[in-house]
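Homework help board

Subject: predicted structure for assignment chain

Our instructor gave us this sequence and asked us to write out the predicted structure in token form, then describe one feature. I got the tokens but I'm not sure how to describe them. Can anyone check?
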Amino acid sequence: MSELLRASNVSFAYGDRLALRDVSVSLAPGELVVIIGPNGSGKSTLIRSLLAQRSASGSIEWDGRALSTWRRRELARRVAYLPQTPSADPDQTVEQVLRLGRAPYWRAFGIESERDQQIVNDVATNLGLRELLPRPIAELSGGQRQRVFVGRCLVQEPAAILVEEPEHVSRSETPDRAGAVLGKADAGSSDRGA
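My token output:
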């Protein structure tokens, strides 16, 4: 089985403070990898480095290609990211937040396809969000908001989802549903050859 991610000897410093030193990690399709450590140990820095949000040294490859060769939009089609504190404009509706996950696929001028809308509808149905689609995200409970942000990742149809503080997903009001849908995302990635 080929590796989806291979990172070797990744290092990063904030000024003189070393946050990562020679960290190596790999991820195969269908594999769950958990990085555990105390607060401030570099877990978030590592995730951001794997997504080219930090300029780390070392080697990072997705699908056998150096991270530096990926365009941001292209990488976003392959890898979704759920940060520790996801955000959205409080006036945005659930549907608008979900649709933003399709941005890597939009055509010129942000034109969405019928397929984009179908994927949003399918994910909303799978996560039990259909009845919430017209509601502003600011009106939702914390667990409902978390499901929306998981959904925003899933509509990207990624081969991998990098989740900061994954216990937030498991603490949502329906952790079994979120876990089952994340499992479906994994199964779906193999359909795309990941």
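Reply (TA_rk): Your tokens look well-formed. For the description, you could write something like this. Confidence is low (pLDDT under 50) at residues 184-194. That's the kind of observation they're looking for.
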